[in-house]
Amino acid sequence: MKTFTYAAVSPPGHGTPAAAFGKHVIRMMASNTGGTLGMLEAIVPPGEGPPLHVHEREDEFFRVLSGCFGFWCAGDYVELAEGGCIALPRGVPHRFRNIGETEGCLMVVVTPGGFENFFPIIELCKPETPEQIASVAMDFGLTFLPDDDRKVA
């Protein structure tokens, strides 16, 4: 990790769009923060969210910018509306889902940074099979787990 000695800024309306696994906007890259963090916005349609998965390298922090989301982590479940925050530790299976009736938006911070590159890489590679997706995910220390059939009540 490089030294982080200057302000990293992402003005309103700026960012790099990535359309892999839904809509994302990369707001801050690890390369802008000395590797300290990466930041992105995830725009999530109703009923959508990633499958159960584990990050081996980074912790994740989520802030609900709009909508209502359910988060599962280590057997716990919590619902958060606009303004709510949750921090999820690396190495622990987790998932989230938009449980609202409208599109929702999350601010996601990963630390250390680097994982924010996953979505642009997936968009570029266009993997077509679960095995190809898993291969790219493995390069980012990400493992998708079998569906645990947990449904939002």
TrEMBL record:
Domain Cupin type-2: 43-109
SUPFAM superfamilies, A to Z: RmlC-like cupins (SSF51182)
InterPro entries: Cupin_2, QDO-like, RmlC-like_jellyroll, RmlC_Cupin_sf
Membrane-spanning segments: none
Protein name per UniProt: Cupin domain-containing protein
Native source species: Sinorhizobium terangae
Lineage, top ranks: Bacteria, Pseudomonadati, Pseudomonadota, Alphaproteobacteria, Hyphomicrobiales
